[in-house]
Amino acid sequence: DIQMTQFPSSLSASGGDRVTITCRASQRISRFLSWYQQKPGKAPKLLISSTSMLESGVPSRLSGSGSGTEFTLTIDGLQSEDFATYFCQQSHSVPFSFGGGTRVDFK
Amino acid sequence: QVQLQQSGPGLVKPSQTLSLTCGVSGDSVSSDIATWSWIRQSPSRGLEWLGRTFYRTKWYNDSAESLIGRITFNADTSKNQFSLHLKSVTPEDTAIYYCAREIGRRSGTVFDYWGQGVLVTVSS
After folding, report:
1. Is the confidence at residue B38, as pLDDT, over 90?
2. Do the bridges between strand A97-98 and strand A85-90 make them parallel or antiparallel, or are there none, so unpaired?
3. How far apart are CA B96 and CA B117, in angstroms?
4. Which of A27, A54, B18, B108 could form a disulfide with A91 if both were Cys (CB 3.0 to 4.6 A apart)?
């Protein structure tokens, strides 16, 4: 099974900051990596697929990059609606697996 | 617009069977390009994919290896819904349970639509 390690587990930032979250896979997963955002009491929301493809309606201040085993989610110019928890997920092989999450809160 | 609506009990006694249903609108459970997954979330386990059911000329299931023997899935095409059954539950099965649609993207697949989530507590 593929393990996904995400770091940091939490970070504090201010509006306008640039934030980077890293996700590492225990084996190579090509670009089969997605990012989700979750707010309290809600289901996760899909942000990015295929490592770097933004879903419809996702603001361009978010971006994804990487391949193989190391991936990043960057938010360039943090906005109030970005304070949330972020998860990566691999779809290279079953069983699908998620990272442990990164909570982004207000400094 | 696809919508997933979950239903099922929020409290299950230890050793009993947890059963949840996910009603689908805006798509068909017998779609030949989508699959229908169950995912749970707890503080101790994080987000955990439990398994899926899907139709490709016949019905298929996949499940997490740790749950093989305890978990089953089925789909009711007449009601356009799919279900999860997890037997012999323990307090470790306490979690928020989500259903989700899995669909293809350029590289891999994604969970693009989710149910609202049901908190299931295993307790006597």
Report:
1. yes
2. antiparallel
3. 6
4. B108
